TrEMBL record:
Keywords: Disulfide bond, Glycoprotein, Signal
Organism lineage string: Eukaryota, Metazoa, Chordata, Craniata, Vertebrata
GO cellular component, one term: terminal bouton
Annotated organism of origin: Anhinga rufa (African darter)
Pfam families in the cross-refs: SRCR
Entry keyword annotation includes Signal: yes
Protein name: NETR protein
Amino acid sequence: EGSGPVLLDEVRCTGNELSIEQCPKSSWREHNCGHKEDAGVSCTPLTDGALRLTSGKGSHEGRLEVYYTGQWGTICDDGWTELNTQVVCRQLGFKYGKSAPESYSEGSSGPIWLDDVSCSGKETSLLQCSRREWGKHDCNHQEDVRLIC
């Protein structure tokens, strides 16, 4: 049980929202609850294939990075298409996106995890797309994928 004011009640998220504030809910501080009804969550640790955008002006843009064996790495832009971008932006919780100009963010120094990624656009995760094996590439960090979702 928590203490202090109850701020939210009747929260009904679909899972596609970027924050709890976008979920349908009662007005702030309007509730019929006691602290015995406080909600709690347990977040799943990062798994291979998790994605993030870094070095942009916000969490919606920047260099695309993928998590693998405990380390974040980049994805090479060889053969990268707008369909790939749509899959990535959807996986990250956005409606759509576009490739960003190369000058958008500096190169990375970490591993290059993926190359020759090809999506049909219907995938829900980048790992469902065809690609080379993890860590197999013929790229440098000037070819890192950069996106704006």
